[in-house]
Design a protein that fits this description.
Distance between the termini: 96 Å
Helix content: 55-70%
Strand content: under 5%
Oligomer: single chain
Number of domains: 3
Order of helices and strands: HHHHHHHHHHHHHH
Radius of gyration: 36 Å
């Protein structure tokens, strides 16, 4: 008997929604009950569907292959409930791995889909667990991932590991003993907010231990030097200019009303706007040199 979509417990639309969102059926228990009632495929049916998908890109065949193995995802996802993540989320990620496995399934290799798909399902769930278990990602290398998913199981008593135990684990997993010790520390610690909870002024948070670099002596002296340079230093530098150059710079850059235009100053002095610009450029250059000469004196003070 061929197991087609008409023999499935759920309607096709419900099935498609359930694959992408296990909670769409109301509760996770309803979803698990529904997928456990889906028919399983014989080896011949699986091979026929695999050929239809591979040779003809038959999406209906792909759907039946996915549906018949949803119970496998539920079983694998259940093994990762100890990480504090929602079962529905684990199943959803596992379903993604299942669909990737179905797309790559080759029925001519003589391997059942269940044996092939379990590796893809676990890979997707592993990635999801590592990405979401902590705010800070604690396993990035291959050795760290291996330790992350095996270290808790391999602790003899559930407590901290002794050096000889770390050595045994490192040898069994083919990783360095230093990696075992580092992952042991990472798994033992928890997330800690840098700042205090909102509204809790009495709670001392780690951010309180951070130094305020703005009050460091060198920063205080630098600000004091800059303030002096912008007041008395600028006044002294302006005194090095002739009266006309002073007036042009003050009118253009230090006026409260937005500054005079080149043409306004040209009319006032009876010269061209270009000549005013040249005087301004020369005056600003002289000011910069005067301020640069003053800067070491202020820093020394």
């Amino acid at each position: 008997m061929s197991h087609t979509s008409s023999s499935l417990v759920l309607a096709p639309a419900q099935l498609a929604q359930a694959i992408s969102n296990p909670g769409a059926l109301g509760t996770i228990e309803a979803y698990i009950g529904a997928v456990n009632r889906l028919p399983m495929l014989s080896a011949q049916q699986e091979a026929d569907l695999g050929h239809r998908l591979r040779d003809n890109n038959d999406l209906d065949a792909a759907r039946e292959l996915v549906l018949s193995h949803l119970r496998l995802v539920v079983s694998v996802a259940r093994q990762y409930l100890g990480y504090g993540l929602a079962h529905a989320d684990l199943i959803q990620e596992g379903n993604i791995g299942l669909m990737k496995a179905v797309r790559r399934f080759d029925p001519d290799r003589g391997v059942r889909l269940v044996s092939f798909a379990v590796h893809w399902i676990r890979a997707e769930i592993h990635e999801y667990v590592v990405r979401n278990w902590r705010l800070v990602k604690i396993a990035t290398t291959k050795a760290q991932r291996k330790l992350f998913f095996n270290l808790r199981r391999m602790r003899p008593d559930g407590h901290s590991l002794a050096p000889d135990q770390m050595e045994d684990i490192a040898r069994e997993l083919n990783v360095r003993q230093e990696d075992v010790a580092e992952m042991e520390v990472r798994l033992s610690g928890g997330d800690c907010a840098l700042d205090a909870p909102a509204g809790d002024e009495d709670h001392f948070a780690p951010i309180g231990w951070l130094s305020d670099v703005s009050q460091a002596p060198d920063q205080v002296l630098a600000r004091r030097s800059m303030d002096t340079l912008q007041s008395q230093g600028l006044a002294d530098a302006l005194d090095t200019l002739d009266e006309r150059s002073q007036h042009i710079v003050k009118s253009r850059w230090l006026a409260d009303d937005g500054g005079a235009t080149l043409h306004e100053l040209a009319a006032q002095y009876g010269i061209s706007a270009e000549r005013v610009r040249q005087i301004e450029v020369a005056a600003l250059k002289k000011l910069r040199l005067a301020l640069a000469d003053q800067q070491p004196d202020f820093q020394a003070a």
